[in-house]
Amino acid sequence: MDKKPFVLRLSLVLLLTIILSSVLFIALYHFDNKYTKAAPQAINGALYVSEADWTNTPIRYLRDGWRYYADRLLTPETLEQQGDNYQYLSIGEGSNFAIGDSHRSPHGSSSYALTLYLPEEVHTYAIELPEIYSTYRFYIDNNLKLQMGDPNMMEYQDQTQCRMITFEASSKVTLLLAVSDHSWIYSGLVYPPAFGEPLNLNTTRGVRIGLCLILVTVTLMLAIFSFYLAIRTHRRNNIWIFFLLCFSTAVFTSYSVVHGILPLPIQPWYSIELVSGYLVTLLVILLHNRICDAKRYAQIISGTLAGIVCVLALLYGLFAAQLTLPVMLAFSNVVFGFKLLTALYLLFTSVVAMRRNIEQATILLYADIVYACAFVWDRLLPNYEPVFSGWFQEWGSLSLVIATGVVLWYDVAMGYRHSLVYAEEQRQMKRQLTMQVEHLRQMNQKVEESAKLRHDFRHHLRTLMTLSEKGRREELENYIRSITEINEGTRLGRLTDNIELDALVQYYSNLAQSSGIQFRARLLLPEVLNFPIVDLCGLLGNLLENAIEACQRQQIGDKTIFIAGRVQDGQLELVVDNSFDGKLKTRGEKYLSSKRNGFGLGISSVLETVERYDGVINLYADEKGFHAEVSLPYFCAL
I need a surface site. Which of 66, 196, 346, 450 has the fewest CB within 10 A? Predict the structure, then answer.
């Protein structure tokens, strides 16, 4: 078989996957990014908003021009005393109070201030404050509008939440955010607040939480269903792992909902959220190894490394308050290397699995490409914070979860289908056993009748001799005729020389005749068949059962069934034709069951048997009826 067209098509599909993934991430960067939303930004600590700006841009993200007061927990009164002792800061430049200086502590207290010059007419405004680590007070002019936890060192209590507040104002307004952090790996204002019209901000917030809630609900439902399947199937380890994967994904992606509803302390919730992300990667690697049938040593090494990173992430979160900036940077480098190695490893194992003709590896390869593209674009486009959706790496991880789930659900569905087919084959075998018993009973009955006839034969001879001696020709002929009829009644009709097939066909012949169906058979088959008789009887039994059911549904016209079989040119050929009512349920080129939703189990069992022995089957219908033509290699290993 020429593999070049296949390789070319696969290469084009993979290239298309790369292109579409890149288009997705670039589109997210430009259209779902707080840093690319076009709106006037603050300059040197002041933001000027005209009436036209307010009308044209009802939402803006306050990311630039904040006045930053390091190591100071200010109030509106002490803010006025600071003079020029501050620096300008864009939100997102640093993830903690150290601002990239390894000699500074990433923990402590700092303040952020921004002056808004608004239209003279009084408007109602809204500010959405994202998670601010790890406790803060928020002032508008001289009024304390919001407090999370207690930022004072002596009464320090961490607490954070994504909150939205509204206020009425005009002309000049000063925003002051006084933050303390002694709890987490981030500190201060990490994500830019949103400022704008209350209805628009509420809508944006609601859509974001709604999308997150849908994702969490779906993953939790998958986790529950996986748990149910894992219990029912007992030893299916992959389903147990997928259950944990769905549950971890639900925990990891629930942050938008949880932090938008509940005010939470940092520990243990943020550590759980941090670890769940790396746990998703670990579980994906474990399932990926199993599906791609990776080498044992590769599974051990990759699983161990991912497990170590999970443990490091747990320790990193639990001891965040004691970490220094060099330690944080070291962990960041470890995570970068781990994600890079994970992307390369997943790509490599899926490609190797495809070369080994593991069918499920194809869909995993597509997801691995999306994950790798997410990693690359995360590096190329660092200034990204989503408005509605998730981060690039979250999209990449989600693609892996979905691909893994599709593969496992396909395996479960196929396993369920095979179990149904197996149950159907078992039913056919039980029916075949019943047929054999009935056939044997009939044979024994005929044997007994024959023995009785032989026992009585001497009496018949005496009677014949007497009638002959007396010249009673007419009575003699009638007596001979009655003996012949008795003898014919003791003969057992055979439709084929093979006793197993004969029992099967005799059963369906009797069943057809009792239903008023004309049954004809022309089976030119040897007594001993060089083919697994159990599979052959199951195949022929399903075809005959379907034929009888089709005839029984027929309301008008002659009901007929014709079966033929022969061995020719090394092929075992079978034909089953039957009349029907002209109504067929199809989906594509497949015939659906008339008794239930979905494909018929009998036909599925027939197709599976034909495929198992590399045979050929042709199913079609015309004005004469429904036809099933099967050709199987005759010389099969028994």
Answer: 450
